[in-house]
Design a protein that fits this description.
single chain; about 55% strand; about 325 residues; mainly beta; Methylamine Dehydrogenase, Chain H; 29 strands; about 10% helix; 5-stranded antiparallel sheet; 1 helix
Length: about 325
């Protein structure tokens, strides 16, 4: 028993050292504003997470899940799953200025690097929609696997990776042509994805098999399977790429993975609420922010102590959030 405690203490000490090093190298000031999609409230909360204050609440479409910013940070795009559309929010006015119909069940959204296109993952249509943000209309819909939950652009903006939950695969699309160029078999229930900072590796959470699959982006093959907690959902990586954090929605914990040690699993810590959904590391690498779906809050965790430093009530059933620019 004493030996087990000593081992855990050593591992925890190593993790603290890695995080301290990560914070020291990040070198980017943390933005104080985040935008949170509240699925049951049909709103977006504008939160100053440093001051622990909700500044505004913006009505959007029905059941907002995913959201993302324009490259210049002036516009917010919100994917509304039930109304199957995208709300365009002028952040200076803090109001919706236009709505673009998307595919059935538009669940998550990303914007191209030039800001001219958006892509939505449509969970009921089993497709990805391409939206022209200049003309403000949908231009094409591409079939992918069953129940596409989430999608990300590669760091170079050339590829779109989609987690097809009920097909147990990841679809890879060429962003310029929207052509499906690969499908990658993965585990049971692929849910969220994040790229390594160098773009060579993709980490995929799996809600049903309870693990993270590590994919080599060049060979498009799974190279590692990492068991984590129950029902892993959201995932993010530190600014310097040394640590990956996984939200285990089924057990209210966060699991860190150390990239330099072959994505070794370190001891989990509390998410500070019920149903941790999405998470993001602050731009300076010092804090981890988590939306807890069943507690209706945004939690700020100090990564130097792994303890909650703030709990901020938001709308009902908070999902994805983004930092302002």
């Amino acid at each position: 028993m004493r030996k087990h405690i000593r081992i855990l203490a050593t591992i925890s000490g190593c993790l603290l050292l890695l995080i301290s090093s990560s914070v020291g190298r990040a070198g980017q000031a943390a933005t104080e504003i985040v935008y949170v999609a509240n699925a049951k409230s049909n709103t977006v909360s504008v939160v100053n997470w440093i001051a622990k204050t909700v500044l505004a609440t913006i009505p959007v479409g029905t059941t907002p899940h995913g959201l993302t910013l324009s490259p210049d940070g002036k516009t917010l795009y919100v994917a509304n799953s039930k109304s199957s559309d995208v709300s365009i929010v002028d952040l200076a006015k803090r109001s919706v200025i236009a709505t673009i119909p998307s595919g059935d069940g538009s669940h998550h959204i990303v914007v191209s690097t030039d800001g001219r296109r958006a892509y939505t993952a449509n969970i009921r249509a089993n497709s990805v929609s391409v939206l022209d943000l200049v003309a403000r209309k949908a231009i094409v819909e591409i079939p992918v696997g069953k129940t596409p939950q989430y999608l990300v652009l590669s760091p170079d903006g050339k590829e779109l990776w989609v987690a097809d939950d009920r097909s147990n695969r990841v679809s890879v699309l060429e962003a310029a042509t929207t052509r499906v160029v690969a499908t990658i078999p993965v585990g049971d229930g692929p849910d969220h994805l994040v790229f390594s900072r160098d773009g060579k590796t993709v980490y995929v959470t799996h809600t049903r098999s309870g693990d993270v699959r590590v994919i080599d982006a060049a060979s498009r093959k799974v190279v590692t399977v990492i068991p984590v907690g129950k029902e892993p959902h959201g995932i993010d990586i530190t600014p310097d790429g040394t640590l990956v954090f996984v939200a285990n929605r089924g057990e209210n914990t966060i699991t860190p993975l150390v990239v330099a040690l072959g994505s070794r699993v370190m001891p989990s810590f509390s998410s500070g609420g019920d149903g941790p959904n999405h998470l993001r590391v602050s731009p300076d690498g010092r804090f981890l922010l988590v939306t807890n779906r069943d507690s209706n809050n945004l939690v700020v965790i100090d990564l130097s102590t792994f303890r909650v430093s703030a709990t901020i009530p938001v709308g009902e059933e908070p999902h994805e959030f983004v930092f302002g620019k």
